[in-house]
Amino acid sequence: MRSGGDVVREFIEAYVRRDADAALQLVTDDVVFEHVPLPESTIVRGKDQLRQRIEGAVAAAERVEWEILRQVDGGDVVMNERVDVFHFPAGMFARTHTSTRVAGIFELRDGRIAAWRDYYDLKSGWLDQVGIDYDELARSFAPTRVISTAAPPARAPGAAGAPRRRRRRG
């Protein structure tokens, strides 16, 4: 029987060789993947979204290398420290490659990856390397505020939040 650490290593090997089908065989149908430094709206849910993420990230790169420096296998929880390197075509970004230190947490269920979270320094670990302005990226993820000029609805006397009448003392 494969250990949780073996499953994670096989997943990473499939990812870097651009074999989404093999990688997806190692995850649950309801897998959740999160780049923790990114907004909640970027969380991947399910195999279809994970396939899109894997194929999108790998398609942009000419080559992908992930080196596992250390890995702790706790059965259904596996944690690793990695260096993720992406090599890009010349002219795509300011640099032709990025090298990012990552801490990955993988939770397994029934021998397959059910949750995957990667923690890393978004600004210096990736954005600065490719020449993307952190503040500009943050603004692109900022929620749009809708300002209403309509008056708030009136509340019935005695309702929660309604203004209370002061009693006169006489």
CATH architecture: Roll
Count of the separate structural domains: 1
Largest sheet: 6 strands, mixed
Name the structural class.
Answer: alpha+beta
Number of helices: 5
> Under CATH, the topology is which?
Nuclear Transport Factor 2, Chain: A
Q: Multimeric state of these chains?
A: single chain
Average pLDDT reading:
84
What share of residues is helical? Answer: 25-40%
Q: Give the terminus-to-terminus CA distance.
A: 85 Å
Order of adjacent strands in the largest pleated sheet? 2-1-6-5-4-3
Strands, count: 6
Helix and strand sequence: HHEEHEEEEHH
Low-confidence sequence ranges: 145-150
- Bulk shape: globular
CATH class designation: Alpha Beta
Report strand %: 25-35%
Report the C-alpha radius of gyration, rounded. Answer: 23 Å
